[in-house]
Amino acid sequence: MPAGSCCMKVGCMSMIDMGIGAEVxxxxxxxxxxxxxxxxxFESPIVPxxxxxxxALVAVIAIMTFLxxxxxxxxxxxxxxxxxxxxxxxxxxxxxxRPVAGRDIEADIGKAVAIARTVRGIAEVxxxxxxxxxxxxxxxxxxxxxxxxxVPRLIAVAIAPAQTPDIxxxxxxxxDQVPPASLDDHREFVDHMRxxxxxxxxxxxxxxxxxxxxxVLSVTxxxxxxxxxxxxxxxxxxxxxxxxxxxxxxxxxxxxLLGLKGGAIGGGLALLLFxxxxxxxxxxxSSAEGSQLIALFGTVSIGPAGYAAVVAQIVATAxxxxxxxxxxxxxxxxxxx
Amino acid sequence: xxxxxxxxxxxGLGPEVLRDLTFRIDSHSFQFLTGPSGAGKTSLLRMLFxxxxxxxxxxxxxxxxxxxxxxxxxxxxxxxIGVVFQDFRLLDHMTTYENVALPFRVMxxxxxxxxxxxxxxxxxxxxxxxxxxxxxxxxxxxxxxAAIARAVIARPQLLLAxxxxxxxxxxxxxxxxxxxxxxxxxxxxxxxxxHDIGLMDQYDARRLVLHEGRLHVYD
Lengths: 337, 219
Prior knowledge:
- The complex is a heterodimer.
- By secondary structure, chain A is α+β, with helices and mostly antiparallel strands.
- Chain A has helices spanning 52-90, 105-118, 130-141, 167-177, 187-229, 231-239, 244-285, 288-297, 303-336, and strands at 92-97, 122-127, 153-159, 181-184.
- Chain B is of the alpha/beta class.
- Chain B has a domain at 91-154.
- In chain B, the strands form two sheets. Chain B has a six-stranded mixed β-sheet, with helices on both faces. Chain B has a four-stranded antiparallel β-sheet with strand order 2-1-4-5, with helices on one face.
């Protein structure tokens, strides 16, 4: 039954006939629908788009996602750098030959090198020349005539990758055959480094956790704020007979898109930053100075795992936004019924 | 159609604001709901459009005890009731056409099945030229007609109007009353909440008077 043809025209009287629409009355209005009148379409979304509150929410999500992404990247880089430091230190031991009166230090060096090369798992043994050893001391001793001093000599022993040579055997052989030799496996330094990097990583992980909590809280409260501005939409839909899941579903989809939009902006900027860092990393590796910087401070690339973590974080933020909107709408509906 | 039996309502631990309400609203009937400010008219209306549950008593709507219905069933029942709010409650981001068509959209009907119906009703209420207008640029009278159109578009069996003449001049109020009378003649039961005695005197209809939380029915 068309409303206008039966229900609404009982008694052949319309609102216009009753004078209610007098202020907008046009010739022919209130009678038949003109055939050439363009028909409207229902194009507006159920939940209003492009509101100031919605844009503010996107901005909040973008900012928090950017900060969280940068924090994730920083933690990933720190973790990788800490791993590299420890691995580098663990892959090298140093033999020191003290000059002893009455002994031929060059012969002791040759014997120590020969002993080191017999040990399984040793990749490279490189004795430092006298000149190299004095150059190592130069920065600390200044212009002193080092050639006249009894300078200890060093032998750098590199351990083959994925190998675990028996350092105890090497140490025993050196003690037996080259008494002035001492072996430093950097164990104490490595232990200190491990403790320090654990502390730094713990702190960084704590900061990451705080940033993630701040992200969730700020996104949650911002979402609730935007929902509050849409209370009338929820109420009207409810009163005209919309089911709760219909209303909550519309809001959830709308806010999921807002979350993805904000996350894509903030996370995208962070990914761009990390991409540029990757390019810079490649450029640094191709130069000698850059390689030294990377060797000292670690790589500036977050790697595939880092990129995956940032993308996961963007999706998680959008999901939090959508879930919060659904929960808040359902709570709002509880208060109107 | 609607039956209240010994219905009471209190908010929280406060005193009962409505006590022992017992009345019926029959099909095709017309009634005024009146009473002084604060008498509980809005609370009673909210119970009628299922926005508020009573703290005691029995409410039967279209043959269903509302206390036993699920939320989904209540939503379905709500589609048989049209509500005109005093403040119109039109959605500002939707055009007049979309506001009026919203009940059909919520029901899941395709636009092709309701477009002509909505357009005809908009022409009938004098908003044919304002279909594309957003509520903020409508006049008070236009908003009121759009709100009424939205309330009646799905042909509800019961129409509830909360102070529909509360903020219009007497001449306009009289026209609105005539509209509600016409809707009633077309088969819709009408309950019109008002404290305008002059308006009620213009039409001989049943009066439900709320006073100090109790309801007095004058047939």
